[in-house]
Amino acid sequence: MPANTTPQPKLRSDNWTLTPIPVLSPMMFLSGVFFPREQLPPLVRTLSAALPLTNAVELVRPLFMDQWPAQPLRPALVLAFTTLGAFWLALALTRRRFRGGGALVIVACYARHFCLK
After folding, report:
1. Which terminus of the chain faces fewer neighbouring Cβ atoms within 10 Å, N or C?
2. Beta-bridge partner residues of 116
3. Exposed, middle or buried: residue 32 (CB in 10 Å: 0-12, 13-18, 19+)?
């Protein structure tokens, strides 16, 4: 009996799983996760201060050494505004994506685990 040669539809998840890598990899190296930011050139250090992961590291790193962050307000505000901005962007893109079908399309897509092309 011949093998099944029917082409299977590709899932949409195949297209976006590698998308965050070009964003997350530089952010991890510039945020001070692996080495101190003081070793970065001054211009890069200034640019990396706006990264959300940099501010998360500034808040969490002292806690691992049983200390409180020296200046927790600025990193906390940057993280809060980044979170709100990302939520707003995700909400706007989701609304745009499912504008025609309403809630039934969303439920049907999640029920099948991923929408097919």
Report:
1. N
2. 11
3. buried
